[in-house]
């Protein structure tokens, strides 16, 4: 059965519009409290950690969640503004029953969302989300007064997480002599990320570190890396690091101001690991650039594509027993370092790779060139089924034959609009454009 509230990354929407309203979020906290603690075997009362990013709506939604959990008899620890991966880490490290993040990640300030982590620091499986949705259909109740949950502040959340991040960087290396610009997107890492890199020895220049509740992701961060590029050039820095609002994405910039996306950074991490030993495989998504697939094949490394979304990358990694994966958007996973995507930890893996190799980002990626990608959004008439449309399928087959091993075709329906997205990759941009247009034109043919 399709989920009613949960998407690929929790429950998300515009604040004040269902489901991101105080009453619903209180009910969500109650329902989650009932489900997540059902199998809690400890004699101590179940405890849930709540963290948030810097959106102004976080105060309201935090209070609503706290009330819902308390009504279900669950204690709450409040971490304040911390990155999403910090909640995953702290939930596991403190042996709590679950973790909750109030964030809409890279979205603008007027959106917000709720995402959950299990006691092991992993995102909830679909089956557990379905249980929470089923519980939401039941009337909200309240335990008796003596069983109500209590709330307390976790005062050292930031310090604990800073130390964890530093522990993922090799103890025999440091960042001395490096000037790094860190862009925090006016988000949850504004008071954390600069300290991590500084304490490892770097000279740190910070931008996007003045959140006011309304400016998260606005003109800064991984979704707007041009500001980082300008700052790296202006400050003559060796490297730039851009996170998004909840710091689970990473984009980097080299000394020349060139921007490197998640595909290129995944390549750097895999290449570094390969120099130290065997790498059985890496996971991307349907949107991962074909150049990675070709490069990994030449390197003798397996490659698998998951559905779009870091949770699906994680699932595929776990199924295959591999460690490294990611998305072009900057979600990167190193499962021997953390249970979830973490922008700061991923940046440290890239920096350690550069340090070990004695190379710049440009040098480390000189042997891979991303294929040009052309994406055309095509409006579809009511009832149009591209999967069975003979004209479109024939054209798709003809394009794939013409491209051979030098390109690929991906067609995906939009989940929210009457559109299909036609994407073609090829070694030459003009070929990709021509081939994508050929397929798109068949929609109305």
From TrEMBL:
<keyword id="KW-0597">Phosphoprotein</keyword>
<dbReference type="InterPro" id="IPR005846">
    <property type="entry name" value="A-D-PHexomutase_a/b/a-III"/>
</dbReference>
<comment type="similarity">
    <text>Belongs to the phosphohexose mutase family.</text>
</comment>
<protein>
    <recommendedName>
        <fullName>Phosphoglucosamine mutase</fullName>
        <ecNumber>5.4.2.10</ecNumber>
    </recommendedName>
</protein>
<feature type="domain" description="Alpha-D-phosphohexomutase alpha/beta/alpha">
    <location>
        <begin position="160"/>
        <end position="257"/>
    </location>
</feature>
<dbReference type="Pfam" id="PF00408">
    <property type="entry name" value="PGM_PMM_IV"/>
</dbReference>
<dbReference type="InterPro" id="IPR005843">
    <property type="entry name" value="A-D-PHexomutase_C"/>
</dbReference>
<dbReference type="GO" id="GO:0008966">
    <property type="term" value="F:phosphoglucosamine mutase activity"/>
</dbReference>
<comment type="function">
    <text>Catalyzes the conversion of glucosamine-6-phosphate to glucosamine-1-phosphate.</text>
</comment>
<dbReference type="Pfam" id="PF02878">
    <property type="entry name" value="PGM_PMM_I"/>
</dbReference>
<dbReference type="InterPro" id="IPR016055">
    <property type="entry name" value="A-D-PHexomutase_a/b/a-I/II/III"/>
</dbReference>
<feature type="binding site">
    <location>
        <position position="248"/>
    </location>
    <ligand>
        <name>Mg(2+)</name>
    </ligand>
</feature>
<feature type="domain" description="Alpha-D-phosphohexomutase alpha/beta/alpha">
    <location>
        <begin position="261"/>
        <end position="367"/>
    </location>
</feature>
<feature type="domain" description="Alpha-D-phosphohexomutase C-terminal">
    <location>
        <begin position="375"/>
        <end position="441"/>
    </location>
</feature>
<dbReference type="Pfam" id="PF02880">
    <property type="entry name" value="PGM_PMM_III"/>
</dbReference>
<dbReference type="InterPro" id="IPR006352">
    <property type="entry name" value="GlmM_bact"/>
</dbReference>
<dbReference type="InterPro" id="IPR005845">
    <property type="entry name" value="A-D-PHexomutase_a/b/a-II"/>
</dbReference>
<feature type="binding site">
    <location>
        <position position="246"/>
    </location>
    <ligand>
        <name>Mg(2+)</name>
    </ligand>
</feature>
<dbReference type="InterPro" id="IPR005841">
    <property type="entry name" value="Alpha-D-phosphohexomutase_SF"/>
</dbReference>
<dbReference type="InterPro" id="IPR036900">
    <property type="entry name" value="A-D-PHexomutase_C_sf"/>
</dbReference>
<dbReference type="InterPro" id="IPR016066">
    <property type="entry name" value="A-D-PHexomutase_CS"/>
</dbReference>
<feature type="domain" description="Alpha-D-phosphohexomutase alpha/beta/alpha">
    <location>
        <begin position="4"/>
        <end position="138"/>
    </location>
</feature>
<feature type="binding site" description="via phosphate group">
    <location>
        <position position="105"/>
    </location>
    <ligand>
        <name>Mg(2+)</name>
    </ligand>
</feature>
<feature type="binding site">
    <location>
        <position position="244"/>
    </location>
    <ligand>
        <name>Mg(2+)</name>
    </ligand>
</feature>
<dbReference type="InterPro" id="IPR005844">
    <property type="entry name" value="A-D-PHexomutase_a/b/a-I"/>
</dbReference>
<dbReference type="InterPro" id="IPR050060">
    <property type="entry name" value="Phosphoglucosamine_mutase"/>
</dbReference>
<keyword id="KW-0413">Isomerase</keyword>
<keyword id="KW-0460">Magnesium</keyword>
<dbReference type="Pfam" id="PF02879">
    <property type="entry name" value="PGM_PMM_II"/>
</dbReference>
<feature type="active site" description="Phosphoserine intermediate">
    <location>
        <position position="105"/>
    </location>
</feature>
<feature type="modified residue" description="Phosphoserine">
    <location>
        <position position="105"/>
    </location>
</feature>
<keyword id="KW-0479">Metal-binding</keyword>
